[in-house]
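= Paired protein data =
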Amino acid sequence: MRRGGFKTVIALLVMMGFSNAASAAATAVAGFSNAAAAAVPETFSDPGMEARARHLQRQLRCLICAGESIDESASSFAVDVRRLVREQIAEGRTDKQVQDFFVDRYGAAILMKPPVEPATWLLWLGPFGVLAIAGGVAWVTIKKAGKAEA
């Protein structure tokens, strides 16, 4: 599997509803250190840094909750990622560097709006595929019911 492929699979499993298996895998991949996480404040005293942190947290998806940003989620994964975001802001990294860090670690699926590229086509086109399959099943069911009545 190419670099980031495992991360994409985890994110896709979470988004498809296989949260228990993917949750364990995502936690294993995360590898957060409790010592580093404890050194970062929950909120910044500087309003500008706090606004940046909140903005970045709204741009990152919780891989456990799938539909929520890490800013909204109460999962342990989101708590750890929020601490990492704040740690990186405190170190002086730019918003782009922080996002790139998480994309490198978890793949583009961690972004609330992942870029459209071959690695994320399933994320963008998956809902339409599910809708097409459901429409096909409904069409076949209606056709069979029509033939049974005739």
About this structure: The radius of gyration is 20 Å.
